[in-house]
Write a structure and sequence with these properties.
Length: 245
């Protein structure tokens, strides 16, 4: 028999599957509608907002997971810093953007904003609830699919002219998000998903485009994508073999 607590948990799970879409809309308004009010502090406001949401709703679950579960890949422990270290990095790193010589560098800006901060906040908003709430595997598949769809839709709002859903879908966000969800579910930890998200952003965009000015399908871009995919599939396969406890 379903209790009131069960219904509250169900509503919370549904709400968090939709959270990425809400975050994308919020980011769009922060940049293009309200940006003039916040100026240079726009990015810091978003970071503080994302980290505060994570701390308020998920800090207890993430701390318990960091103490209780080791990330294993093919049976070998993978040492990663706890989630709050990533939060500190996300808050501190953008300070570098106030240094003029660094602020003028597309590579540094992409490294801080796209690789470090975006990957951390997006993983918190999209997949931290898999750590907090227990669910059977079939239930997880359903929630992960919806969450991955809203994670994909979130990327529609990262430019002033909102992209079509088909455009961001073809960029591979759905499969990428779904696989990261599996990693979080199997390891009961958020940290490896954050690291893989950071590496993916670094190799797929920041290095080839911002450092070498060689977007896909250049040789450099293809090599970076191959490296990113190889690391990702090894991690996915290794973590998927981990037994749930």
């Amino acid at each position: 028999m379903q209790t009131l607590s069960d219904y509250k948990t169900l509503i919370a799970k549904i709400a968090w599957t939709l959270a990425p879409l809400c975050w994308g809309v919020f980011v769009w308004f922060m940049i293009w509608e309200w940006g003039a009010y916040f100026g240079s502090f726009n990015y810091l406001v978003r970071i503080i907002m994302g980290c505060s949401i994570t701390y308020f709703f998920f800090s207890k679950a993430l701390n318990n997971a960091a103490r209780s579960y080791r990330i294993q890949c093919f049976g070998y422990s993978v040492p990663v810093p706890p989630w709050w270290i990533f939060s500190l990095v996300a808050i501190i790193a953008p300070i570098a953007l106030f240094i003029p010589i660094l602020h003028r560098s597309p590579f540094i800006e992409s490294l801080i904003c796209g690789v470090i901060v975006s990957a951390i906040i997006e993983e918190y908003i999209t997949r931290a609830f898999f750590v907090r709430y227990s669910m059977k595997f079939p239930e997880f598949i359903a929630y992960n699919m919806v969450s991955s769809l809203t994670f994909t839709a979130m990327h529609m709002f990262y430019t002033q002219e909102i992209k079509s859903f088909i455009e961001v879908l073809l960029n591979g966000h759905l499969a990428f998000g779904f696989a990261l969800g599996i990693i979080v579910y199997k390891t009961r930890r958020i940290e490896l998903a954050i690291l893989l998200h950071m590496v993916s952003n670094l190799l797929r965009y920041t290095i080839p485009v911002c450092l070498f000015n060689s977007p896909y399908p250049s040789t450099i871009a293809i090599l970076c994508v191959v490296c990113a995919d190889l690391l990702f599939f090894i991690s996915l396969g290794g973590c998927s073999s981990q037994e749930l406890t």
